Structures are given as structure tokens and as C-alpha cells.
Amino acid sequence: MKRRDILLGASSIATAAVIANSQLSTAKQPDSNTTLPIAKSTAIAGKNIQIAKDLPGYYVTPVGTGKFPAVIVLMEAFGLNKWCRSVCDRLAQSGFAAIAPDFYRGATYAYTDVAGAVAKLKSLDDNAVMSDIGKSIDFLAGKSEINANGIGVVGFCMGGRYAFLTNATYPTKIKAAISFYGGGIDAAPENSMGRKSLLDRVTSMQSPIMLMYGSEDNMIAADEHGRIATALSKAKKRYILNLFPNAGHGFMSSDRQASYAPAAEAEAWLMTTGFFSQNLKPKKRK
């Protein structure tokens, strides 16, 4: 990597940290020892649905009527499990409709079954997954309660990589993307699990993206953060890159006790809802 590129990446990450801190300074900060409370009375129960004839999923909307912004939730390598559904429910509690397409068509894996989950992950085809996400976008666009001009995407682990790719594949339909510890966006060959680098797709992106990583994530090397930041900066794309201290891979999932980091999860959730509110909800006219 040229010295100029290294400087670009470092400058971009520093800028991202400043932007993230300025966003947080305008909101009430969570207690570092607790997660944000969930007001269960503010959302209706989600339900299992058929997004398309060959694609099952999970769907939930906030209480009330109107045109809701919506978020497509992309699952971890372990499948559309209880925790993934809880993310959808939690988004609905914050005023967003949420839909989670089931790329595995019903299969789920315990968090202890890493080998099984990785084997299933490797069986997925990027184009087929993007087709499933396209069907999810079409489903949302056809719902009277959804603002089709306010659709975002968030993904975790395997889904974090697909959130990055979705932002490039559907540049006019996705208005914001968040990638949580998206492994394989530009991994070294020994850590790629056969997945192709996505950095050649950066130029297609039109919407802002926020990338979330844990400092103790031994599955995603720090130099991958730099390569991603450099590619986005060179392409003049809007992004934020956040690194959370004392957090590893999977730090958002309360069902993954070995990796769950409550303080990082609480802060990251605040940033997630803030980012989507800024980019998916209609701007108020002064």
C-alpha cells in the first residue's frame, strides 16, 4: 500500500471517530453497565411471513398508522434465530418497520455449532442473496404502511458483509446501511472463507454506510478496516467507521454470552437508531 493511501485511510478513520462522537454528544448516553431499556408496549408482535413464494422471513411494524421507514435485517451465519428476530422487534420499538429474510430457508445453528454455521455460510451465493434482498425491498415497497423512499439495511457478521454489498447492489433503493463486524468485505485469502472482496463495488454506492467493529475481534484484522476506509475515501463515499474497545466479534448478541459486550452494545444501538433516524425519516422543514 502506498504511503498516500495509508494516510488517506488513517485520516478517514479519525474523521469517522469525530463524526460518531459528535452524534453521540447530542443524545443521552447509556449507562456503561446496562443495555438500553426496551419499551415492549411500543411495538406489535412480529410474525413469520412469506416475503416471496420461495423466501420466508420475519416482519414487524411499529404501533400506529402512517408511512414507516423500514430496515432490512440481515442475519448472522447462525440463521434467522430468536436473537435476529429480537433485533427486528427492537427496531419496531424505535419507530422502524423491520424485515428479516431467511437466506437458510428455515435452518438455524446453535452458537456453539460454528462448524455447521460456517459450512452453511460457504454454500451461499452472493447473487442469490442479493436476489433475496431485492425481493425484500419489493415486499416493503408494496406495503401501504411503508415509506418506500426510507428503506435501510443492517447486517451482523455474515449479514454485515451483505449489508455492504446491498448498498452497492441497490444504490437507489437503499438509503442507509450499517455493517456490524462484516467479515470478508476485504479479508486476506486465509480468512476469506472463499468470499470475494467487495471493494470493487464501492464506486456503485450512493447512500451513507456505517461500519461497526470490536477492538478484540480476532476474525477481522485491523488492516482490513484500513483498506475499506481507503477505498471509501478514494471513491468519495460518505461513511463512518467505529471501533469499540473491549468488544469482540458478535458483541451485539445478548445470546452469545462468550462475546456479548453490554456497554458496547448499548452505545452501538444508540448510534444505529440515530443513523437510521437521520437518513430514513423525512426531514422536518424549518
Automatic annotation (TrEMBL):
Stored SUPFAM superfamilies: alpha/beta-Hydrolases
Top-rank taxon: Bacteria
Keyword annotations from UniProtKB, A to Z: Hydrolase
Keyword presence, Hydrolase: yes
Domain annotation Dienelactone hydrolase: ranges: 56-278
Name this polypeptide is given: Dienelactone hydrolase family protein
InterPro entries named among the record's database cross-references: AB_hydrolase_fold, Dienelactn_hydro, Dienelactone_hydrolase-like
Entry keyword Hydrolase: yes
GO molecular function: hydrolase activity
